[in-house]
Design goal:
Blueprint lengths: L3 E7 L3 E8 L5 E8 L1 H4 L12 E2 L1 H18 L8 E8 L4 E4 L20 E2 L7 H13 L17 H11 L1 H6 L2 E4 H10 L11 H7 L12 H7 L20 E4 L2 H7 L6 E3 L2 E2 H8 L6 E6 L3 E8 H4 L10 E3 L6 E8 L3 H17 L9 H23 L10 E3 L17 E3 L7 H25 L6 E5 L1 H5 L1 H11 L3 E4 L4 H13 L6 H8 L3 E5 L3 H24 L3
Helix pairs in contact: 3-4, 10-17, 12-13, 12-14, 13-14, 14-16, 16-19, 17-18
The chain binds adenosine-5'-diphosphate and ribulose-5-phosphate (5RP).
Length: 556
């Protein structure tokens, strides 16, 4: 019988397990689990940009999705699973005790958000990121230089420093800190001690200022100068990091029994969702792999010697082997993309949730149906109407910084803005301007790569928005003035993990071969429309001008 691997993909809202035939790439089963506590936004406060996730959400999802996917799969598949690899969001770190257990799973910390995973989009550490940037520029070595030269509040050191300053209990109890993508493989293989568990090169290099040239993490002197509270922590973290083609070990007896698998199943070192998503979408050198969902991650690979020691300014980093082992991985992205459409939808839903929800004109069941149906159709209907609005007709220009700006040049304190409104600015016109703003944010990233000397030959898109929205995709193709291929797989991140698992389990010698055998190819391609390209060149200049005004001249 054929061999199979499992790709376990932890997204922002849900986790999915995908079982893939390693010879044909056939996806034989997949199950999704929405995080229950997260769905109720427990431990979060959007107003303060605080987004925390409880490890129980991850654990319940791990067991449920694998067990249910194995039930769905044809008979005999479970016995022929040879590997599991894991991708997660990031930087999503957690404080752990000496055994590597997240503090929120230990007595006294169960309900403490500071003892939970700090989700990538948590921006509570803006002040700490500023301090890191200031010190880095004064220090003899700029530890931020391989992370675009600007450290972000979305990343490891800023987050942990913020939490330990805020919470003396967590500070005292935290032996070390672990990324979500490192904790799951550690747990599955039983190697959870913070000093021995295998750490992901991808997470360490892009988010924790780890680099071979620095001998690992930033120096103890730098960290202590940042805050004496950090003294000694470096020694309780790690020196070595591993790419996703390396084994983290095999399943423990306990997990093998729980999941219904053999203890021979090899577990791969973890990586971030976007990075393995790029693998799943069959990333190739010089193609931007654009993960378009809640946020965007724009991934590029180049041969190692091509960029060499040149530092690409303003991106989320350049790391040896962070996407495809053996190649240089470059990452950029937008902190909000589909999340901006989701925000506008929530604004429009307000009267539904606050007026219609209270009406006695219809019975409860009908009311609920009305609410659900309207809510489900808002973005699709807005897109339909927005498609009819001619480019530039509305005069509205928007900025895509509703969740800060990840790249180019991280500044998470920035806010979104909409200009050019008049009394005729209706919902579809505003929506179109928001879509254009997200496309302009993408262009700013492409332009930065190009101006820094990184070649771009094309774009491969994946993620929910790439699949769901021809309107957004056409506008992005027009604004970038580049064709965009959309990857066929519905679950590119999980598929990328399944490919990595096939390499780790020894089925293929390299990621390139796993991609070739297991890849789903391209579903569709969007081509720029020359007439639109010209109009968007003019609008993009307005976006840039407006951006400069909001960034440098406007104070709320
Ligand atoms: N028809 C649509 N057009 C454009 N965007 C959409 C549409 N439907 C949903 N979205 C956006 O897709 C995003 C979710 O993308 P998805 O890739 O599924 O999730 P995630 O980023 O969490 O992995 C949401 O932010 C939502 O606003
Ligand atoms: O920055 C990241 C990876 O480097 C995050 O993991 C990513 O932005 C979150 O992804 P999604 O929008 O798909 O939930």
């Amino acid at each position: 019988m054929a061999k199979y691997t499992i790709g376990l993909d932890y997204g922002s809202d849900s986790v999915r397990s995908l079982i893939v035939n390693v010879e044909t790439g056939e996806e034989v089963a997949s199950v999704v689990f929405n995080y229950p506590r997260w769905q109720k936004q427990e431990y979060c406060n959007a107003h303060d940009n605080r987004f925390r996730q409880h490890p129980k959400d991850y654990l319940e999802g791990l067991e449920y999705t694998i067990v249910e996917a194995l039930k769905q799969a044809p008979q005999g598949v479970a016995e022929n699973i040879v590997g599991i690899s894991v991708d997660t969001t990031g930087s999503t770190p957690v404080a752990v005790d000496e055994k590597g257990t997240p503090l929120s799973l230990t007595p006294g910390f169960e309900e403490n958000p500071n003892a939970m995973f700090v989700l990538w989009k948590d921006h509570t550490a803006v002040k700490e990121a500023d301090e890191i940037n200031k010190l880095a520029k004064e220090w003899e070595v700029d530890f931020t230089k391989y992370e675009g030269g600007i450290y972000s509040s979305e990343w490891f050191w800023a987050k942990l420093l913020h939490v330990i300053r805020e919470d003396a209990g967590v500070y005292r109890a935290a032996y070390s800190w672990v990324e979500h993508c490192d904790w799951i493989p550690a747990l599955l293989t039983g190697n959870t001690h913070p000093k021995t568990l295998k750490r992901s090169r991808c997470a360490a290099g892009h988010k924790a200022m780890w680099h071979e040239a620095f001998g690992g993490l930033p120096s103890e002197e730098f960290l202590v100068a940042l805050d004496p509270m950090l003294a000694g922590l470096r020694d309780r973290l790690y020196k070595d990091t591993f790419t996703c083609d390396v084994s983290a070990g095999t399943l423990t007896k306990e997990w093998a029994e729980k999941l219904g698998l053999s203890t021979d199943v090899v577990v791969g070192v973890g990586a971030f969702d976007a990075h393995l998503g790029a693998v799943g979408a069959e990333i190739e050198p010089y193609y931007v792999s654009k993960v378009m969902g809640t946020s965007t991650c724009d991934m590029l690979i180049t041969p190692m010697d091509e960029v060499g020691s040149k530092v690409v300014a303003g991106i989320c980093g350049q790391v040896d082997g962070s996407i495809v082992p053996g190649m240089l991985g470059l990452e950029a992205g937008q902190s909000a993309f589909g999340d901006i459409y989701a925000w506008f939808k929530r604004v429009l839903e307000w009267p539904l949730k606050n007026i219609l929800a209270e009406t006695s004109l219809v019975d409860e069941a009908t009311k609920q149906k009305l609410l659900d149906e309207t809510s489900d159709k808002i973005i699709a209907k807005l897109s339909e109407e927005a498609a009819k609005v001619p480019i530039s007709e509305s005069g509205i220009v928007a900025l895509d910084w509703m969740n800060g700006r990840r790249t180019p040049d991280a500044n998470q304190a920035l806010k979104g803005a909409i200009a050019g409104l008049n009394l005729g600015s209706d919902a579809p016109r505003i929506f179109r301007a928001l879509v254009e703003a997200t496309a302009f944010g993408s262009k700013a990233i492409n332009d930065r790569f190009i101006s820094e000397g990184v070649r771009i030959d094309g774009v491969i898109a994946l993620g929910g928005v790439a699949k769901k929205s021809p309107l957004v995709m056409q506008i992005v193709a027009d604004v970038l003035n580049m064709p965009i291929k959309v990857a066929r797989s519905e679950q590119a991140c999980a598929l990328g993990s399944a490919m990595a698992a096939a390499v780790v389990a020894g089925v293929y010698p390299s990621m390139a071969e796993a991609q070739q055998k297991m890849g789903g190819g391209i579903e569709t391609e969007y081509h720029p429309i020359p007439e639109n390209v010209e109009k968007y060149k003019v609008l993009y200049e307005k976006y840039r001008k407006f951006g400069k005004f909001i960034e440098f001249d406007f104070t709320a």
